């Protein structure tokens, strides 16, 4: 997957003198737990030492990968989105799915329970699955890649750490690293912006990114269009709170030298969903729809949030002003709580197009919240705004 160890080390040594202004200090990225490791020790891939709580090995070459999903589009129109943080070995190989006993599910619940709701909120907009399966995407990235970090073994955690604390640390670190790599902004500063007609050379793009970051990342393309970028790091200390040092990519991506397209996020295809429908691409309002949560599950007939099969809602009106009802009756908001039942006065809602999805809005806001993430047969009350523990959005999906 990667170049030979000698090449990795040579490129790493050349780039270490020009990291982002200074190495990303993850001690400031994640303050909820501490590894107790020094950030002045050996740099990963610089020795053949075995992996430990304070030295990442064998996966000491870390890739922060980002997507530019444009057809169907995901995430903000002015930002790339997160793919993951992958631990590649220093010899051209890599490990995956290293500990099935820690293949956690309900990542949203873990993050919320352990005080990382801010990270979850960001993930809901910037770490999104092309098919609307965010939770499954996060579970995959953790179980496939996160479980392979030696510095995130459970034995490395502080005494008394909650179950899954190492996964929470992983997601916090990935999000903070992503925020330090604003690919869209860096390209825009060089006049490289999404377009339906312009093309760019690989040299133009990599030059702009190197000017901003100090390193040359690897760019991957699909049918001549930018699709993914990979930034490479070496690490001093732990993934939890170590020092991440950007290095030049040890290999080139798949993009050609010229004629590269950077498409607008306005693809014609629409994401499929767990409910089996699709989000209208023209912003039109379906008459029958499911309300699917951005994290997991959707709303039942009473207006509660559940992981069970979402209910069918009847929508009456236009996207700018409509009412909703289910088999239980009208849907309304009272005291900030959403309820659908007989005798409820119908509230007026609106729909907002965002990243290829049609989001439910109340009083102009697409923010909804609950006290916890549902699981099994447990349902959660839905509130408008962001005053409770778990934040999410609701996609209107044609039934």
How many distinct domains?
2
Q: Tell me what the CATH architecture of the largest domain is.
A: Alpha-Beta Complex
Ranges with pLDDT <50 over ≥5 residues?
A: 1-31, 267-282
Within CATH, the superfamily of the largest domain carries the name Ribonuclease T2-like
The SSE order reads HEEEHHHHHEHEEEEEEEEEEEEEEEEE
Q: Report Rg.
A: 22 Å
CATH level-1 class of the largest domain: Alpha Beta
* Count of helical regions: 7
Distance between termini? 42 Å
Main location: cytoplasm
Active site: 83, 141, 145
Keywords: Cytoplasm, Disulfide bond, Glycoprotein, Hydrolase, Lyase, Nuclease, Signal, Vacuole
Region (Disordered): 265-290
Describe what you observe in this structure.
The protein is of the alpha+beta class and 399 residues long. It has 2 domains: 5-261, Ribonuclease Rh, Chain A (Alpha-Beta Complex); 288-398. It is built from 7 helices and 21 strands. Strands 1, 2, 3, 5, 6 and 7 form a 6-stranded antiparallel sheet that branches.
Quick take:
The active site is at 83, 141, 145. This is Ribonuclease T2-like. By secondary structure, the protein is of the alpha+beta class.
């Amino acid at each position: 997957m990667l170049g030979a160890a000698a090449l990795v080390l040579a490129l790493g040594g050349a780039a270490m003198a020009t990291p982002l202004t200074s190495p990303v200090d993850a001690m400031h990225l994640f303050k909820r737990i501490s590894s107790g490791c020094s950030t002045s020790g050996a740099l990963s891939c610089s020795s053949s030492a075995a992996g430990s709580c304070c030295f990442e090995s064998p996966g000491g070459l870390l890739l922060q990968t980002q997507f530019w999903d444009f057809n169907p589009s995901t995430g903000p129109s002015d930002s790339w989105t997160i793919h993951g943080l992958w631990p590649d070995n220093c010899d051209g190989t890599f490990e995956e799915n290293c500990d099935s006993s820690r293949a956690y599910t309900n990542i949203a619940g873990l993050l919320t329970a352990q005080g990382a709701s801010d990270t979850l909120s960001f993930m809901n907009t910037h770490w999104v699955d092309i098919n609307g399966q965010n939770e499954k995407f996060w579970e995959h990235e953790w179980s496939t890649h996160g479980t392979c970090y030696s510095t995130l073994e459970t034995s490395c955690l502080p005494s008394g750490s909650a179950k899954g604390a190492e996964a929470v640390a992983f997601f916090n670190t990935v999000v903070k690293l992503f925020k330090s790599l604003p690919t869209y902004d860096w390209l825009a500063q060089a006049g490289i912006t999404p377009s339906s007609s312009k093309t760019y050379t690989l040299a133009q793009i990599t030059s702009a990114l190197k000017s901003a970051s100090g390193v040359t990342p690897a760019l991957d393309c699909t049918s001549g269009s930018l699709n993914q970028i990979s930034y490479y790091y070496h690490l001093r200390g732990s993934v939890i709170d170590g020092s991440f040092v950007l290095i030049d990519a040890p290999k080139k991506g798949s993009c050609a030298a010229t004629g590269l397209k950077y498409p607008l996020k306005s693809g014609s295809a629409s994401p499929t969903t767990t409910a089996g429908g699709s989000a209208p691409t023209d912003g039109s309002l379906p008459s029958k729809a499911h309300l699917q949560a951005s994290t997991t599950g959707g709303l039942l007939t009473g207006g509660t949030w559940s992981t069970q099969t979402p209910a069918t809602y009847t929508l009456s009106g236009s996207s700018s002003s409509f009412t909703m009802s289910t088999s239980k009756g009208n849907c309304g908001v009272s005291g900030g709580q959403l309820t659908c039942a007989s005798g409820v006065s119908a509230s007026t809602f609106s729909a907002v197009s965002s990243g290829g999805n049609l989001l439910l809005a109340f009083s102009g806001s697409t923010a909804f919240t609950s006290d916890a993430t549902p699981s099994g047969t447990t349902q959660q009350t839905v509130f408008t705004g962001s005053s409770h523990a778990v934040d999410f959005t609701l996609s209107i999906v044609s039934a």
